[in-house]
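Archive entry: two folds, one per protein. Generate the first.
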Amino acid sequence: MKHKQIRSEITTGSLGLLFSTLLLLSNGVLAQEEPVQYQAIALNDTLTMLIGRGGNVAISAGSDGVYVIDDQFPNIADQLLVQIRKISDQPIRYVINTHYHGDHTGGNEALGGSGAVIIAQDNVRQRMSAEQFNQFWNGSTPAATPASLPVITFGENVTLHLNGEAAIAYHV
């Protein structure tokens, strides 16, 4: 069986943080003003990429169920769930967060509340659990709610074997 790899790159560099923060802020403002116009791109028989607001979302849906990689902003989680349901009406079993920014973890509470198990690298849970101060913006992001936190974490990597594929998240 051929395995496809989905890489999760967790970065903490200041330049990456700056660009991610700018994207988060610009998209966060827009997210409140109008509905998201998602574009679904089928990558193969089980894997779909959703282009929406903030980071892209990957959805694997097949005979073993559904898992999602990243889940956008909290205020558009309901719109994301509608899009996922267009791909599959099966329960969402897992959510993988690639990093702690709000456009990748914002839907955790909604998806976790619907029964999905949230998975992320150890540092993602650690950062989400505490207030984060950004020197560039001279401002803070509050700690995430307990319901938003990953419940399974990993150090170096984790692999999901679902829908005939292996999705491997790496800490780089």
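Generate the second and append.
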Amino acid sequence: AALNASANRLARRLQRAGVRPGDPVALLMKRSIELVAAQLAVLKCGAFYVPLDEQAPARRWAELVEDSGAALLLVLPGDEERELPPVHGLVVDLDEGLSGDAENLADVDSQLEDLAYLMYTSGSTGRPKGVRVPHRAIGRIAIDNGYAEFLSSDRVAFLSNPAFDASTMEVWAALLNGGTLVTLATDTVLDAPRMAEALTQQGITAI
């Protein structure tokens, strides 16, 4: 309920910033509750999100923002000081709280074939290519997919790069099945003993 309320308030903030159905919104954010709230908020506006790899060089961010046509970039507090693409930036800070109406948006009607996100390939063999993913595809991979059952009792670890497609399964398989999504910091994920300890402490059931 708290996550949904935060996403609703952020969605209205995005609408005030000019986001309309079908618009691309770039996300330059590490794994965090703020990132998940931002993804939800963008979709609540009927727009689609464009996740950027925060570890990529600034030149790559600028190229992908230009290619996607995103006119708005969401970042975490403190990241506005980085060398960001030349578009309007908006800082997402849930700790400070977002004022305003926390009710679900009633004036947006997204369809199954509408875009949910645009994700780019690594570009290791040339220019990165954008893959257009509709809402239908997220539902297909997260619900009754035939090979991995997710329950409301599951605690799913969010440990993939948000700009990599494995994150789709982690985030949406948890949320769309009523489970719990547990974000793990990069320094924890890259340290095997700390990772093992975190999985135990957090009661993770799926990675």
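Annotation attached to the second fold: Strands lie at 24-28, 48-51, 72-75, 88-91, 115-120, 130-134, 155-158, 180-183. The first helix runs from residue 2 to 16.
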